Every structure is written in structure tokens, then in C-alpha cells.
Amino acid sequence: MGTRLFEEMSVNGVKADILTYNALIMGFCKEGKMKKAAYMVKELDKDKLVPNSSTFAALITGQCVRNNAERGFELYKSMVRSGCYPNEQTFKMLISAFIKNEDYDGAVEVLKEMMDRAMVLDSDLLSTLCDGLCQCGKEELAVGMCNEIESKQLTPEGFEKMA
Question: How many structural domains comprise the chain?
Fold first, then answer.
């Protein structure tokens, strides 16, 4: 549906704006259709439009949907280099994808980026991460992370600190 409308806009001489592109890119990414999303990014470039935070968030979402947290994190780094900044939801998406892949070190790296930006942490996500770290023998890392969160006064409501 969206691509048909996009094609009709083009045929009728209506130029798409960044919002139109982002909506299409997000739709493709949520469906895991990364090749179509990449095509839309190239079209965006042809129209001399610059990707913004929403564009990158959509692409990161797409990688996370495909369980490719590492690629999502690479896109996050590109996002920051481009002068765009993620919101809390983008960080949570990345952390969740790393946890789902049992890559707790990756999840911690993203969490540290989030803490450096003094963003609100999610109690359930943090608990899941700490549990995962403990299950894979990284209790010291989990405790150290909790101490750092507390020292930065970023402890989320409802989160029980590890002993």
C-alpha cells in the first residue's frame, strides 16, 4: 500500500518529504524487509534529503527485528556520527535485541551509552540484563553496573539493587 502511494506521488510530480520516507522505511523495517528499506534510503539520498533520528531509529528497529543487534549498534554509531541522537526507545530496542541473542556484553555497552546520556533506565530491562549477567558468571559486572547506576542517580523506580 505505502509503496504504491509513493509511486503514485512520484508519477504525479509530488515530491516526498522526510516524513514520507521515514514512514515507508519504518514500515519495511518492522516487517524485516531491510532491502526495501535500504532502497528507500538510497531514494532519500537521490532526493537530496538527509536521514534524521527517525530514519536511523527505523533502520535500527529493522536490524533488531531480524535479531541483528550488532548491525543495529553499528547503525547507532553512524547515527551519532551524523549528529543525530537516539531516544530511549531506540536504546531499549538495542538492549533487548542483545539480551535476546544472549550477548550481555553488547547489552552492557549500549546501557553505558544510555547512562552517559543520563537517560531514563527501564527497571524490567535492567533486571533481565542483571539476571543474564549472573547466569553467565558475570556477577561482578552486574554488581559494578548497578553501583555505577546508583552513583549516577539513574536507578529506575522499582529496581531492586543487587547485593
Answer: 2
